[in-house]
Each structure stands twice: as structure tokens, then as C-alpha cells.
Design goal:
Length: 293
């Protein structure tokens, strides 16, 4: 079976988890893991027979047969180094950093609208978990305001997450508006120090425009979105069903990771990786279809 060759830049925990998810893919072939030092992630990829490089984006850009690249480095590296090099090399880029050079992508909501985009941004973990629900409400009742509180285990928040808390809130708030279709968005992140670690939990509140819409119709739309997301995030579930009080809809989503490389309580990291691979799967399917014509 033909597959599209892909590379991961950034061999840390995110990059390693991406690698294991790509191994399961029907359309993607892991063709390179690239970093800038001889790290544990590089050694791990090598142990699985994956070509590796410590020349970073240069090595990936030089490989003509690599068509899709996942960037799990940093916003600064993506914006200043990786994105320009990959654009010049004609690669399609899945950006997992807060750089957001390209349009926001939540696969279950707007991937089909991004056909032909060379660089798509995966928003944030909180965005991937909550924007589908806000969109599910807005498409049937409109959304004047959407607010999310994303609580994650402090053990699943590495240096990158902690250093980008402001970017998380800003990026997620913008994506609530641009992808979730709320007139105004707000995002809050909480690091929960509980031990044993807790699963990612997201409280979502939406103020609707059409108060004549029934709670039943809103619930049905939300449940449809949950089922769509579960196609690529099996541990995604509606923990507290929607409640409609006046013009306010409230519900809670919980995310359990698949445990590919990261612990199952790291649903926050799992969901953004699963979304990135789901997006790449559909892009690759289009490439294969066009290549076969």
C-alpha cells in the first residue's frame, strides 16, 4: 500500500509520541526524525529503524520524497527557521507550536476548508478539546461568547507548556472565535498538582444567541461533535452533559490519552498529537488520490 513519507522535527516527548501514532497510520510513513543534538528521542527513533538527523530542518528540507512535516519544536524555531525553510522546499507543514503562521486547524471542524494550505497550526491542546463543542453549539444556536477552563495535570505540563501560558490563552481565545464561531472567546488554563495525576478536564460555557433553540437540539449537536472527535481521539468523552440555563450552555469534556508514549493522564498532549496526525492523514489521502490520477 502506498503511503506518504513524513518527518518529525523535534524529538522530545511530543515528537516521540507523534512517531508512535504515525506507526499506526494507514496513509503515513515515518521517514525521518530530526533534531539538533543526539538526544534520547533521536536514539529512540533510530532503535525503530527510522532515519535520523541532528541537522534539524536542513536534513528534512533536503529530502524530496518527504511531503509532510510535523514541527514540534518551539514557536521561535518554527517562525524564524523551520517554516521558511520548509516553505522553500515545498513541504506541507503541520505546526504544533504556538507560532500560528498558518490558519488554525481543528480537524473535526474545519480541515476540509483548509485544502491547499501549506502550513496549518494545531492551535493548543485546550483548543482541540473545546472548540468542537463551541462550534457544535454555535452551528445550531449561535454563540455570542465562548469560555473554556482547561485543567491539566501539572506532571503533563513540561517546560514548553509552562513557558507559553500567555500564548495558550491568546491562541485558544482567538481560535474559539475563528474556528468555534463565537463572537468573543476566552480561555483559562489550570495546572492541577494532584497526585496521582488527574485526566485533562475542560469546562465549556457558551452564551447562545437564539434562546428559542431547545436543550435537546443543542445536546444532539454536541454529541455529534463528540463522536466526530472520538474517531481520532478515542479517550475523548462528555463527562457532564450539556445544561441550558437561560442563554448559557455548560458542559464538561474529559480527555484520556492513548498511552502510545506519554502517560494516559497526558490527554492534553495526546489530543493535539492525535489531531495533528488526523489532519496529516486526510492531507495524505488527498495527495495519494491526486497522485493516482
Amino acid at each position: 500500500m502506498r503511503k506518504i513519507k513524513v518527518a518529525v522535527i523535534g524529538p522530545g516527548n511530543i515528537g516521540s509520541d507523534l512517531m508512535y501514532k504515525i506507526f499506526r497510520s494507514k496513509n503515513l510513513e515515518m521517514a525521518m526524525m530530526a533534531g539538533i543534538v543526539e538526544s534520547e528521542g533521536i536514539k529512540r527513533a533510530r532503535s525503530h529503524g527510522i532515519p535520523v538527523s541532528i541537522e534539524g530542518v536542513r536534513a528534512v528540507a533536503a529530502q524530496e520524497d518527504i511531503k509532510i512535516v510535523f514541527d514540534s519544536t518551539s514557536a521561535a524555531a518554527h517562525q524564524n527557521i523551520n517554516a521558511p525553510a520548509l516553505k522553500e522546499a515545498g513541504k506541507t507543514v503541520i505546526d504544533l507550536t504556538p507560532a500560528a503562521i498558518g490558519p488554525y486547524c481543528v480537524p473535526g471542524v474545519n480541515l476540509t476548508q483548509l485544502k491547499g494550505e501549506q502550513n496549518i497550526n494545531m492551535v493548543t491542546c485546550g483548543g482541540q478539546a473545546t472548540i468542537p463543542i463551541i462550534y457544535g453549539v454555535s452551528r445550531v444556536a449561535g454563540a455570542a461568547y465562548g469560555e473554556i477552563i482547561s485543567s491539566i495535570s501539572s506532571k503533563s505540563a513540561g517546560p514548553g507548556t509552562r513557558a507559553n501560558m500567555d500564548e495558550f490563552t491568546e491562541t485558544t481565545s482567538k481560535a474559539i472565535e475563528m474556528v468555534g464561531k463565537a463572537d468573543k472567546g476566552k480561555a483559562i488554563i489550570i495546572l492541577n498538582p494532584a497526585d496521582p495525576p488527574v485526566l485533562m478536564t475542560n469546562t465549556i460555557m457558551v452564551r447562545i444567541k437564539d434562546t428559542g433553540i431547545s436543550e435537546e437540539k443543542i445536546t444532539q449537536s454536541i454529541q455529534e461533535m463528540v463522536e466526530d472527535i472520538r474517531q481520532y481521539v478515542p479517550g475523548y468523552r462528555l463527562l457532564v452533559p450539556p445544561s441550558l440555563q437561560g442563554d448559557k450552555v455548560t458542559c464538561v469534556i474529559q480527555v484520556e490519552g492513548q498511552g502510545d508514549f506519554l502517560p494516559k493522564y497526558s490527554g492534553n498532549l495526546d489530543i493535539i498529537n492525535a489531531a495533528a496526525v488526523a489532519a496529516a492523514e486526510q492531507i495524505a489521502a488527498q495527495m495519494l488520490e491526486e497522485g493516482g490520477q
